[in-house]
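re: ur question from earlier - yeah i can do the single chain one, its not a big deal. heres the input i used so u can compare w yours
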Amino acid sequence: MAHKAGFVNIIGNPNVGKSTLMNAFVGEKLSIITSKAQTTRHRILGIVNGEDFQVILSDTPGIIKPAYDLQKSMMDFVKSAFEDADVLLYMVEIGEQALKDEAFFNKIIHSKIPVLLLLNKIDTSNQEQLEEQVQYWTEKVPNAEIYPISALQGFNVAEVFSRVVELLPESPAFYPKDTLTDKPERFFVNEIIREKILMHYKKEIPYSVEIDTEEFFEDPEIIRMRSVIMVERETQKGIIIGHKGAALKRVGVEARKDLEKFFGKQVHLELYVKVNKNWRNDSKQLKRFGYNK
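and the output i got, formated as tokens:
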């Protein structure tokens, strides 16, 4: 049997459930998930291997109109997802009308590669609404195959994955067959800590934060990590730390539990907070954090 391999890129507006679908496909939590927009900042690859296939999934940031340099870099990740895709998964949710960026939407409807339009969160709708939505999207994106799904509940996820494998070109594997992702371990440490900040802090705080894991030492029984939470202003530093350090401690405790699950061994995590003024508009800082290539 011929071997298939290719890049399958997931795009859509913020909060549409791209990361939930990616994790469901991969069977591991690679992309962080919260109810806040712009949770995904990077392009994250998740690799699913079978005997005769390799699916390289790409979770990209939700499509937005950029307000500062960090967001421009995030949209560059989305642009790159169009360039190397063998199959495009365009995710929408019940009641959604179109992408926030018309140029991206035009790329989808004029795509030369297969497009699967995934109508997500159908567990929140009824049959009549679902039929209306399928009709709407059939007219809006006539080049797409439409699949109603629930990424959270797993409905139709296996069927979509089977169709993806069918559509892949014949090719040898791009990555070693035991590879799960293209990201290093420290990336996932940073993401897990950032997820806890997204969950527990409001307003601008989560979007002003970047994590830098400065130390990562692995022994047979324990991994020792030292991570710095970067903020843009002194006032934000105080909010992150909280009264008598309580808020920062909560982030550390919850992150450590998830890290121990992720790495499968004991974790010692030290967290610090530093002010790094205006890092979201600083090209050198953005490059350091992996946004500008």
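DSSP finds nine helices and nine strands in the chain. not sure if urs matches, ping me
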